[in-house]
Amino acid sequence: MQNQPGDYAAQIPPELQQSVERHQRHLAALVGSLRAAGVGEEMIEASVHQLLDSYRNELTDAMRAMVKDQSCG
Amino acid sequence: MVEQKLADDEGRLSALRRLDVMDTGPEEPFEKIVTLVRTVLAVPIATVTLVDRHRQWFKAQRGLDVPETPRSISFCTHTIRQRDPLIVEDAHLDQRFADNPLVLGAPRIRSYAGIPLRTPEGYNVGSLCAMDNKPRRFSPADIAILSNFANIVSDELELRLIAQSDYLTGALTRRGFEEQAKRELARHSRYGRPSALVMIDVDHFKSVNDSHGHPAGDEVLRQLADISLDTLRPSDAFGRLGGEEFAVLLPETGGADALAAAERLRQAVEAHSFDLPGGTRLKITASLGVASVSPGLASVGDWFARADAMLYEAKNGGRNCSRLALQD
Fold it and tell me: Please, which domain of life does this record's source organism belong to (chain A) (predicted)?
């Protein structure tokens, strides 16, 4: 069971919160456009998983960099 | 305003530099997106393309075997000049592209759909592209999918930008600023281009905090950042190095012009009335140290030290003034 960005809500710094919300909106819009184009559910699910995984990794890196900046500042 | 940004290539290039993504290695999010675009739209070629001054560079690509091409022959340089997608159903029938080497030779692009990749500031830094070797009509559903993938590419790029921005002032963090300074120093080493670094320190900032409290101090820093960003060019980089110390990187600027820019900034701070929460109004000054890049600099640390020494001189010289380091 993999974590979703929403699971990190409590840990996400406020400066990243809007970006996370925007990404979720864009992902939802992508799913809508894939469905509208008749793309199969399996492909949609695989796409969403891949995009979520990589965004989560980037988000974690960003949070780590921000913590590092704060400890240096 | 929006249209101005489409025509402002220097501002666009600065926005691209701030993303700190050019010439970096392959990265998972972009690799996955081009793979998905190719699969979902059933095209042989998909790219995340960033448009530099003289080249288009592929951050991620499928179906091509070159990392970049000259900008002059790129489809994407047309895409970034507009807000809407650029669709070319048959390049042979389009006079802009019919004799393009990318059409007549490898990779033999025949049809193209490109969605501009827009930064939060409104600059199109590149595009997400789907290309085919045969004429093709991209349906509205295809374009909607590609546009939504492009939004996700922009999200990924923006995430990096947020991670290197100081939350209080919006300036670059020390880490982000040092990265920019490293690139500027490398540009000087390679091409001999001039550049200057300005260090800025708020005079008597401790007394602001002591007398008015830390929220007032934060407000002073926020307003100082706003003044600086209003005074600087889009191509300049502005960072908060820590506490009340800021720095500016002035590309393509020699020592004398950098000193003049520092003085303009100092005067703008001096002229400003800092309105604080609770109705208090303060006058604040700043001291500035300037050092232009020179062959004698071995590292970014040396460059910072030279500007910092000038800042120290400005403080010792009575504050509210700027000092320029002499060239080697």
Answer: Bacteria
Helix axis angle for B140-163 and B28-41, nearest 10°, is: 180
- pLDDT tens digits, B112-158: 999 999 998 899 999 999 999 999 999 999 999 999 999 999 999 99
Domain count, chain A: 1
Query: Which phi and psi (to 5°) does residue B50 adopt?
Result: -115, 135
Provide the domain limits for residue A24: 14-71
A58/B151 touch (CB, cutoff 8 Å), yes or no: no
Assign domain B2-163 to its CATH architecture: 2-Layer Sandwich (3.30)
Domain-located, residue A1: no
User: How many Cβ pairs closer than 8 A exist between chain A and B?
Assistant: 94
All residues of chain B having their beta carbon less than 8 Å from the beta carbon of residue A55 are 29, 152, 155-156, 159
**Is 0.90 exceeded by the ipTM?**
no
Contact A39 B40 (CB under 8 A): yes
What CATH number does the domain located at B174-324 have?
3.30.70.270
Range(s) for CATH 3.30.450.40 in chain B? 2-163
pLDDT tens, position by position, A27-59: 999 999 999 999 999 999 999 999 999 899 889
Identify residue B98 by its one-letter amino acid code: A
List CB contacts (< 8 A) between B33 and chain A.
51
Pairing outcome for strands B322-324 and B195-202? unpaired
**Residue B73 C-alpha, separation from nearest chain A C-alpha, in angstroms:** 31
Q: Is B155 on the interface with A (CB under 8 A)?
A: yes
